Amino acid sequence: MNGKFIVFEGSDGSGKSTVLERVKSYLDRKNIDYVLTREPGGTSIGEQIREILLNVDSHKMHDRTEVLLFAAARAQSVEEKVKPNIEAGKLVISDRYVLSSLAYQGYARQVGVDQVKAINDFATDSLKPDYTFFLDVDPITVLNRKKASEDPDRLEKETNLFHERVYEGYKQLMDDEDFIVIDASKTVDEVVNNVIEKLDEILEEK
Ligand code: TYD
User: Fold this and answer.
1) pLDDT tens track for 122-143
2) 4-203 CATH pick, 3.40.50.300, 3.40.50.12780, 3.40.50.1820, 3.50.50.60
3) Which helix (H) or strand (E) segment is 91 a member of?
4) Ligand 1 mean position to 10 CA, how many Å?
5) Please, how many CA atoms are within 13 Å of residue 197, restricted to the half-sphere of its CB?
6) Residue nearest ligand 1's atom 3 by CA
C-alpha cells in the first residue's frame, strides 16, 4: 500500500475518541501497519503544548496565542510522525487536523478562517490529508452528551453558543473540501461499521 493520511474530525462529544479506539482494534485485527497521532499532541513536544492549551488555568490565553500553539503542535506532528510514516508507506491516522483550527479558532473564535488557514499552511508545509472523516452530529445532541463528561478541559468548558458555532463552521467549511460525512447520531456500532466500510474502500486503493 502507498502511504495514506487520514484525518478524523468532529465536534466535542461526537464520539470520535470511542470510534477511533474501535478503528484501532479493527486495524490491529487486520494486521494493518498504521500510526496514530492526535492533536494537539501526538509527539513529546506536542503533548507538552497540549497541556498548556487544555489546562483550565490557561484562561488568560489570547486567541492568537491559541491559534499559534495549535499550529505549533501540528507542525511537530507533521514533521515527526505524519510525513516520515507516509513516506514509509504506512497508514497515518490523525485525530483532528487543520480543519479543527479553522472551525474552532477561525470560525467559532472569529480569528478569521483565512488567517488561520495561512498560519496552518506554514505549520504543515501545506500537507493535506488524503481523506477526512467528519463525524456529523447536531450540537444539541453533542451538548447533552458533553454534560455527562465529568472533567471538562478548557475548550470543553466553552459556552453552548461556542460549540454551536464550531459545528456551523465545520458545516460551512465542508462545502470547500472532500469529506466523508458519517452520521454520528446513530449508535456507536452503526457509526463504527459505517466508518470501517469506507476505510476498507480506501485501503483497497493502491
Ligand atoms: P481533545 O481532548 O482531544 O478533544 P476531543 O476528544 O473532542 O478531540 O481536546 C482537543 C480540544 O481542542 C477540543 O475541544 C478541540 C480543540 N481544538 C481546537 O480548538 N483547535 C484545534 O486545532 C484542535 C486540534 C483542537
Assistant:
1) 999 999 999 999 999 988 777 7
2) 3.40.50.300
3) strand 91-95
4) 9
5) 9
6) 39
